[in-house]
């Protein structure tokens, strides 16, 4: 990364903070790279590079991770229907949600729900801290 590119990324901090707030406040809504890039005033490819540079992951991965974490908290708090949790997390099927959840946390949603409160919370916090 050149000095000018680095300086440009550092100056984007307020825009990325605003986009981060927008994502968190609208996590239930469809969030596309195009909309987020437009909010930042950048092309999609430039936004993608900047977002990865500042967050260490793509916007899509970041959104998916936030949705899965929220789903984990719903399961930990006793959500009965995993299918409803899957739909709320943006997944069209229980199977797709289960696969993504297991990839993220190492256990299926049903196994996660069987964990004790402390163990489930530990898994969610470890993911958050990494």
Keywords for this entry:
130 residues; mainly alpha; Arc Repressor Mutant, subunit A; 9 helices
Can you tell me about this structure?
By secondary structure, the protein is mainly alpha-helical. It has nine helices and no strands. The longest helix has 18 residues, at 59-76. The radius of gyration is 17 Å and the shape is elongated. The model has no long low-confidence stretch (mean pLDDT 87).
Number of strands: 0
Shape: elongated
- Uncertain spans: none
CATH fold-type name of the largest domain: Arc Repressor Mutant, subunit A
Summarize model confidence as the mean pLDDT.
87
CATH classification, class level of the largest domain: Mainly Alpha
For the record, give the distance between the C-alpha atoms at the N and C termini, rounded to a whole number.
24 Å
Task: State the share of residues found in helices, binned by percent.
Answer: over 70%
Structural class: mainly alpha
Count of structural domains: 2
- Strand proportion, as a percent range, falls in under 5%
Q: How does the major sheet shape up? A: none
> Could you tell me the radius of gyration in angstroms?
17 Å
Summarize this structure briefly:
This protein is mainly α and about 130 residues long. The protein has helices at about 5-10, 15-25, 35-40, 45-55, 60-75, 80-90, 95-105, 110-115, 115-130.
């Amino acid at each position: 990364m050149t000095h000018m590119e680095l300086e440009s990324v550092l100056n984007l901090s307020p825009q990325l903070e605003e986009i981060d707030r927008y994502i968190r406040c609208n996590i239930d809504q469809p969030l596309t790279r195009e909309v987020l890039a437009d909010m930042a005033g950048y092309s999609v490819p430039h936004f993608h590079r900047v977002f990865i540079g500042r967050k260490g992951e793509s916007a899509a991965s970041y959104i998916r991770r936030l949705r899965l974490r929220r789903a984990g908290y719903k399961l930990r708090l006793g959500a009965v229907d995993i299918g409803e949790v899957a739909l709320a997390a943006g997944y069209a099927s229980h199977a797709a949600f289960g696969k993504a959840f297991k990839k993220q946390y190492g256990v299926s949603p049903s196994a996660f729900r069987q964990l004790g409160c402390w163990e489930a919370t530990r898994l969610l916090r470890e993911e958050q801290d990494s």
